[in-house]
Design goal:
Blueprint: E1 15-23, H1 28-39, E2 43-45, E3 52-58, E4 77-85, H2 92-105, E5 112-118, H3 123-126, E6 132-135, H4 144-167, H5 195-215, H6 219-235, H7 239-257, H8 276-283, H9 311-314, H10 323-337, H11 344-361, H12 364-375, H13 384-400, H14 404-418, H15 428-437, H16 460-476, H17 480-493, H18 500-514, E7 524-525, E8 531-532, E9 542-548, H19 578-583, H20 585-590, E10 591-597, E11 602-609, E12 616-626, E13 630-633, E14 635-639, E15 646-654, E16 658-669, E17 672-677, E18 685-686, E19 690-694, E20 700-704, E21 724-726, E22 733-742, E23 751-755, E24 769-771, H21 774-778, E25 787-795, E26 815-817, E27 826-830, E28 850-853, H22 858-868, E29 876-883, E30 889-896, E31 901-907, E32 917-919, H23 922-942, E33 948-951
Parallel strand pairs: 1-3, 1-4, 4-5, 5-6, 9-18, 10-19, 23-27
Antiparallel strand pairs: 2-3, 7-8, 9-11, 11-15, 12-14, 12-16, 13-15, 16-17, 16-19, 20-22, 21-26, 22-25, 24-25, 28-33, 29-30, 29-33, 30-31, 31-32
Length: 952
């Protein structure tokens, strides 16, 4: 016997073997359809008996294995069911001859046979025959199972008769010597009259009867005969058959202790004991570990077909082995098998059976010892197919006991055997399929999401080797798409474990594959139904942060509100609750405060990093969004080797209004297109992903007739300013022409103009700006490309009688026109220029902004020389405030121009007259100011002031 049956288990010893084979030409699908129905009859309850007969079906069985039927009766083919298709009566004789020829192959051991004929009709089909069943078609055969049950019962009758014949054989010295095929030549010339020879014959026959009892459903009797056979065979050192007797004893004990079987079948097998009383007595002990030794009543054996004369040999033998003893006896039997080179198959199958028992007992380490022994059993010259089967079964058994990595190892060996150099046509598809089955054993999954859940699991070097083998196998299969997918997966998940040289080699191979078959994000479905998820290159490049950018100032939208709305209360009737804000924290983090505008180019900034040791070329990189229609404008990147954080700005244009969410980005690297979603990148820092897109707004371009100011203002973040300058004297008027052009795509329907002053401590008296909007409004709506002109009159009118503060901003350029935050409707703001502070820290290290003065005015002169005589104070304004303790205020404003200076008493004491005095030199200015300050300080002293405060 050269081919082992790796699917055997201990309970197979109680089954009878039936071969089901086609005769002639039978469609394969139809044959296996009938075979499945036949195999469903795996257990038959014998009528008029409490026993069950178990059947094991095979559709292919080597006749040479049948020669070992005397050694172990479950290896003997006792039944044959042939399936044939016969279309006419002319074909019937030939079909019948083929059936008889098939019976002759197993004729020496067959108990009974049946022929199932499909398609034949007529007189022949109407004949009543026990060995032939006729059916009109494969679809019209309702009683196939019933025919098989009758066939099994006929087998049982023959089996029972043989058991009785062998058990009641009283021929004494004439007991035949049972032997295996390779022993026949060894017994030629032996003395058949010796006591040693007779014991050998008796021991082997006892073992054989034990097999028949086990098949016939008489478990207790089988145990007795096995014990007797062990004693007889041990006495004559018949090691091969002693091993078989021990294995039979183990099998019977396994059937008793584990009714559910050891093969993992869904339907459990229940032992059938011959005696009803014995069955009831042992039912309570069947599942108890203590039920290991049951004594047999010798008087009960006669009813079961065993002669009463044998009772003296039995004595008080042990009936059943315990779980621990089963394994010890298996080890002993295997050691005996190992003494015979030609018993390698028997030894290997015994190891497999023991492993299945140990798997149920959850004794994984002992099971691995049996498997390790099975690996080194020499079975001679095995074909490549037999080697593949052997390694695959070893893999399954290691998996059964929980040795997943060892299981994956043997599965991979089987895969490599499929493409061995000695095979003329390597089976690359089988190799690829087996390699896929090894993935779980190496903690490897083909889903990239499993590698983003924390630390790396498994052995990276082994995983990379396995992925390379998958790439090569898929290429030899002629499927470059699979090669691209596996290489992409390798590069994405194993990037941290690749050396610089390996990174270059893998990327070069990937580019070669993608030149023929570009990689995408589609799910690949294999012929066996396995689906390979897409692989996104989230590490090429690595993204560290994502930030949505506001529009440029000139494009930012502003909410429309009237001029009076600035003074409205902003109080809300709703109560602030920190709990509510906490529960909505996630939503707050995802929303952006600013808005994007439909039709305008919007930007998202990414901080990227190139982990590769060479320049990374990203051919296309764009945004992925949801919510509104968005046109992403792809960019091409060239990132230096190991660049560190590198800012990249991706742009796009929203085409509709609504809420838009940036869900990720897409790239094209090495010919592989990837869609990278932010939700799958927990390490990416983002300040928000959702932003509101408002409808398109008008856009205006402003130009004026006045020259631009040399000192532009610093507007607020919400304002867009255009600064112009004009020099005016009090009472003088200047016309400012403002041209507004619609450069957008929307009509301008409303125009508003407003003026506003800076927020300073002084109050402004007098109106400087005036305009007429009637002519400009009459030209509305303003179409795209059209323009409108607005004239603003600037007239300086200073009112010195209204309060203690006058004009806050006055310089050599006059009034500054600033503003114009533009929205729809247009709102223009013309305001005075912000106050410029001329006294910088560069000219003096001492802060003289607030100085306390006594009646001594010498300090005042030095103070004025220091600040006024300095060249840096030219083209600026210095304001002097004198405040007495009784809250009397004296304010002087010094304006120093390029050629002339003015000393302006903004608010004088009641006894003086306010006037302008022109001073053409710094010394004259200092002297004049000194005199005035001294006079005013003296006046303050006359008011009984202890001190005054001078603030510049």
């Amino acid at each position: 016997m050269s081919v082992p049956d790796y699917m055997q288990c201990a309970e197979d010893h109680q089954t009878v073997l039936v071969v089901v084979q086609p005769v002639g030409i039978v469609p394969e699908d139809q044959f296996f359809r009938i075979y499945k129905r036949i195999a469903s009859v795996a257990q038959v309850s014998i009528r008029d008996s409490q026993r069950n007969l178990y059947i094991r079906y095979r559709h292919h069985y080597l006749p040479e294995n049948n020669e070992w039927g005397d050694f172990q009766t479950h290896r003997k083919v006792v039944g044959l069911i042939s399936v044939t298709t016969c279309g006419s009566a002319k074909e019937w004789p030939q079909t019948l001859d083929r059936f008889h020829g098939q019976k002759e192959v197993f004729g020496a051991t067959l108990y009974d046979s049946r022929l199932l004929v499909f398609g034949l009709q007529g007189e022949i089909a109407e004949q009543q025959r026990t060995d032939v069943a006729f059916y009109s078609s494969y679809d019209d055969c309702p009683n196939v199972e019933k025919r098989v049950e009758d066939f099994v019962e006929s087998i049982f009758i023959v089996l029972e008769s043989k058991r009785l014949d062998r058990a009641t054989d009283k021929s004494g010295d004439k007991i035949p010597l049972l032997c295996v095929p390779f022993e026949k030549k060894d017994f030629v010339g032996l003395d058949t009259d010796s006591r040693h020879y007779k014991k050998r014959c008796q021991g082997r026959m006892r073992k054989h009867v034990g097999d028949l009892c086990l098949q016939a459903g008489m478990l207790q009797d089988a145990l007795v005969h096995y014990h007797m056979a062990v004693e007889l065979l041990r006495s004559v050192n018949d090691f091969l058959w002693l091993g078989a007797a021990l294995e039979g004893l183990c099998s019977a004990s396994v059937i008793f202790h584990y009714p559910g079987g050891t093969a993992g079948g869904a339907a459990g097998r229940k032992p059938s004991l011959a005696q009803g009383q014995g069955q009831a007595a042992d039912a309570g002990k069947r599942h108890r570990p203590g039920a290991q030794e049951v004594l047999i009543d010798p008087g009960a054996l006669t009813a079961n077909g065993i002669s009463a004369d044998t009772s003296s040999e039995i004595g008080r033998a042990k009936n059943c082995l315990g779980p621990e003893d089963i394994i010890e006896k298996y080890k002993e039997a295997i050691s005996y098998y190992g003494k015979y080179k030609n018993a390698g198959v028997i030894e290997l199958e015994a190891c497999v059976k023991a492993v299945r028992v140990l798997a149920i007992q959850k004794r994984a380490m002992e099971a691995s010892e049996f498997l390790q022994n099975a690996v080194y059993i020499n079975l001679g010259q095995l074909s490549e197919e037999e080697k593949i089967q052997r390694y695959s079964i070893l893999s399954e058994l290691y998996h059964l006991i929980g040795f997943h990595r060892k299981s994956a190892f043997f599965k991979r060996v089987a895969a490599m055997q499929c493409v061995a150099p000695t095979i003329p046509e390597p089976g690359w598809r089988a190799c690829y399929k087996l390699l896929l089955e090894t993935l779980p054993g190496y903690s490897l999954s083909l889903d990239p999401k499993d590698f983003s859940k924390g630390t790396h699991r498994g052995w990276a070097a082994v995983q990379m080797r396995l992925l390379h083998e998958l790439v090569y196998a898929s290429r030899r299969m002629g499927n470059p798409g699979l090669s691209v997918r596996h290489l992409s997966f390798l590069l994405q998940t194993m990037l941290d474990f690749l050396s610089d040289q390996e990174k270059k080699e893998v990327t070069q191979s990937l580019e070669n594959y993608t030149s023929k078959c570009p990689g995408g994000m589609e799910v690949l479905t294999l012929p066996d139904g396995l689906k390979l998820p897409p692989v996104a290159f989230t590490k090429l490049p690595i993204i560290r942060s994502v930030k949505l950018l506001d529009l440029p100032v000139s494009l930012r939208p502003h909410k429309q509100k009237g001029l009076l709305e600035n003074n409205m209360s902003t109080k809300s009737p709703f109560i602030y609750s920190p709990i509510i804000m906490h529960t909505r924290g996630e939503e707050r983090n995802k929303n952006i405060e600013f808005q994007w505008v439909q039709g305008e180019v919007c930007e998202v900034q990414l901080m990227v990093y190139n982990p590769m040791p060479f320049e990374l070329r990203v051919e296309h990189m764009g945004l992925l969004t949801s919510g509104v229609e968005f046109e992403a404008l792809p960019a091409a990147l060239f990132l230096p080797a190991e660049s560190g954080l590198y800012p990249v700005t991706l742009v796009g244009v929203p085409r509709t209004a609504g809420n838009i969410t940036v869900t990720g980005y897409h790239t094209s690297v090495f010919g592989v297109t990837s869609d990278c979603l932010l939700e799958g990148l927990p390490s990416v820092i983002t300040s928000g992903c959702m932003v509101e897109v408002i409808p398109s707004l008008p856009r205006l371009q402003l130009s004026t007739s006045l020259p631009r100011s040399a000192h532009p203002l610093q507007p607020s973040k919400e304002e867009l300013s255009s600064s112009v300058s004009v020099q005016l004297f009090n009472g003088e008027t200047q016309h400012l022409t403002i041209t507004l052009e619609n450069i957008g795509s929307e009509d301008l329907e409303t125009l508003e103009v407003a003026s506003k002053t800076c927020n300073t401590k002084e109050k402004l008296f007098g109106e400087f700006l005036s305009w007429d909007l009637e002519e400009a409004v009459s030209q509305l709506p303003l179409k795209p490309g059209q323009s409108v002109t607005l004239t603003v009159n600037i007239k300086v009118r200073l009112d010195f009688s209204g309060g203690e503060n006058l004009l806050q901003d006055l310089n050599d350029d006059g009034i500054s026109v600033t503003g114009l935050p533009i929205s729809s409707p247009l709102r223009q703001v013309l305001k005075p220029r912000a106050e410029t502070k001329p006294l910088g820290s560069e000219s003096s290290k001492t802060d003289y902004n607030h100085v306390k003065l006594s009646s001594d005015t010498t300090f005042i002169s030095q103070f004025l020389k220091l600040h006024v005589a300095n060249n840096k104070i030219k083209n600026a304004i210095t304001t002097i405030y004198i405040t007495t303790p009784d809250k009397t205020h004296y304010t002087y404003r010094i304006y120093t121009g390029a050629r002339i200076s003015f000393l302006i008493p903004v608010c004088c004491p009641p006894t003086r007259h306010c006037k302008y005095e022109a001073v053409h030199s710094i010394s004259r200015l200092v002297k004049l100011l000194k005199n005035r300050v001294e006079d005013d300080v003296q006046a303050a002293q006359r008011l009984s002031a202890d001190e005054v405060v001078l603030t510049v």
